[in-house]
Structure formats: C-alpha cells, structure tokens
Amino acid sequence: MSRTHVRTSPWRFRASLTPRGGTSGDAVPDTASPSHAPPTQSDRDRVGPRRQTGCMTSDPTPHPDLTAALDALHQSEQHLLRTVDSLSPDAWGEPSVLPGWSRAHVAAHLALNAEGLAGAVNGLAHDVEVPVYESGEKRDADIEELSQAGPAEIRERLFGAGQALRDALSTLDAAHWGGSIARVPDGPQWSVVEVPATRRREVEIHHADLDAGYSHRDWPGDFAVELLDLATEDHAASPDSPVFTIRATDTIRTWSVGAEQPVVEGTAADLGWWLVGRGRGEGLACDSGLPRLGPWRRTPAPTRAP
Q1: Which value, to the nearest 10 degrees, does the dihedral of the CA atoms of residues 115, 121, 124, 128 take?
Q2: What range(s) does the Mycothiol-dependent maleylpyruvate isomerase metal-binding domain occupy (predicted)?
Q3: Over the stretch 108-128, which tens digit does the pLDDT of each residue have?
Q4: Does 127 map to a domain?
C-alpha cells in the first residue's frame, strides 16, 4: 500500500501523569476522539483528501503473531470489564492510583482511548487519515466530561469502544496492516501493527491503576516481560534516567539499562510497576538502594511489518 507517511515511533503515545509515589507517565495511546464509524465528509474536510493507494488484497486474516496479540487484548479487556462491573456506585468516585483522577477518570480515559483508536483504524481501512484525537487539550477535556457521567454510561462507552476497536481491526487487510495512523493532525505516524499490544498495555496498566482489586501482580506473565522489554529500552534512551540492571527473579532474566551495576531484583511485575512510575519500589531489592528513576517516556523504534 502506498501512503506518504513519515513513520517515526510505532507505538509511542503518551500522557504525562505522575502516579502516587511514582515519577512517570501514562501507559500509551491517549485519546478522546469518539468517532469509530466510517469517516464522514466532516472527517475528510478535517484530515484532508483521500490518498491514492497501491494494489490492495482483500484477505482480512492477520498475521499469526497479530492473531495472538488480538486474543491477548480481548482477554485483558474482559478482565477489566469484570472489575468495572464489580464497582459499587460510590466506588467510582474514589481515588485511583493516579493523582487527581478518580476511578471514573481512569475508566473514562480507557473508553475514549479505544474510541479514538477505533476511529483512526477505521479511517485507515477507508484510506482516509483520521487522527486518534484532535489535540491534547480536547483529550483532557473529554476525559473530564465523561468522568462526570453516571457509572452506567461510562461502562457502556468502555464496553462499546473495545468492541468498536476490535471491529475496526478486523476490517484491515494485509496491506492496511502495514499502514500507520496519526496521533494528532499532522503529527507523527504510528504503525497500526502495534495497536493491539499498545491497547493491551493501556488496559493492563490502567486496570491496576483503578486500585479496585486487580493489581500489577495479577498481570499475565507474558505481559510483564513485554513491559520490561519496552520500559528498560525507554529508560536506557532517556537522559533523565540513571544506569542500572534489573533481574527478574521469577523469569531468571536480566535487562541492562546502560550498565551492569547496580542490580535491582524483584519479580517481573514488581519491576514493571516501578519502571512505569507506579509505587515506591515495593518488593524490589538493590544493595545500593533503588536508583531514582526519571519519567518513563516512550522512544522511537523501527516500524515492524506484520
């Protein structure tokens, strides 16, 4: 498929949030664009004309690795919905792990995040560039607005948005899976092949942020390891982070963040929670004391084809 995109980071969407006792940001694509229907004329007026594409295949079957990623995302979202359904009406307004955000804010963010991703993916399927969200300011305002709605409305939006994203991804053929979407108008292009893993990261981290019975120690083992792969790479590339090595005691693996010493040890989940700026390093050990982390920021990586 021929699209004149400038590809930079395939899955580096970020919001700056500082968790209680932590130092860094949000989990990944952040959005508040509610459109997940086929692009309208107003969409086309906003994002520009349809781009010419090359020969397209009609085979909608994703690569086997993508099938596994989509299945893992579905399981993570089902677990999230069970937790959301367990919340009493009063519990929605209680604080989450994220300062200034109630549980309703976290759930609203997750709903709007999926809606925006669905809109962008649906735009890609129709060869029209639709950004994930219009601006950071609009994203924040929409989260605040939805967080004030009733629990039933937020839950309905969350459930519907997850389904809309799955539906949008299911329409992509092999050529579109090699495409990209824009986080904001005229912004960087992100590889659509990473959307399932990116969304799963949003779901798993923010599920624990709800502080409603599901914690980082409930993360699937494969997710915790994938998070360590990414977060250590990001900290190694950040000028604000110190150098160290982590050793996951439950996987017998090590990751270098620029130096062999000092070594921080703990379970993969505890290490991941710490690296993304949550908590105070509970469950971790380091002979010289835990390094003082800089903010977790995503860094560019080569685009991967399916």
Answers
A1: 0
A2: 74-210
A3: 999 999 999 999 999 999 999
A4: yes
